[in-house]
Amino acid sequence: MGIAQRRKSRSLALQALYQWQLSGSSLAQIEAEFSVDNDMSKVDVTYFRELLRGIPANLSELNQQIEPFLDRPVQEVDPIEMILLRMGTFEMQHRIDVPYRVVINEAVELAKKFGGTDGHKYINSVLDKLALRLRAAETRGKRSK
Which NCBIfam families match (predicted)? Predict the structure, then answer.
């Protein structure tokens, strides 16, 4: 799958996770709705499913990873920004094949599209710090440039 399909997967996963968070509907129901309502031929469906199922399944672990880098309680973080932080953290932990800079860039771009005015700066800052911990080997040496 190409970059465009993966990008679309992240965008749809963000929207689906937002719907899940607000509605309380089951993930299976939301996934079914998204499959019907969207042209999934342009989406990396496997990646979409991995994010949609993996983030809720690992919610407390993801929050524990993120919390030390937040400047406020999780409940006070904008819902879109929190989903993006969880998505970025999930990808850094579970998708080592995706470079950390790509993970951060994708989350920042989604924050610009769906988040608040300066939300992308917050996303960038938190995920950048998380990358130092979660991708230490990958980030080593790249900092000094």
Answer: nusB
Please measure the distance between the N-terminal and C-terminal CA atoms of the chain and give it in whole angstroms. Answer: 31
All structural domains of the chain with their residue ranges: 3-134
pLDDT tens digits for the chain (145 residues)? 688 899 999 999 999 999 999 998 999 999 999 999 999 999 999 999 999 999 999 999 999 999 999 999 999 999 999 999 999 999 999 999 999 999 999 999 999 999 988 999 999 999 999 999 999 988 886 544 3
pTM of the model: 0.93
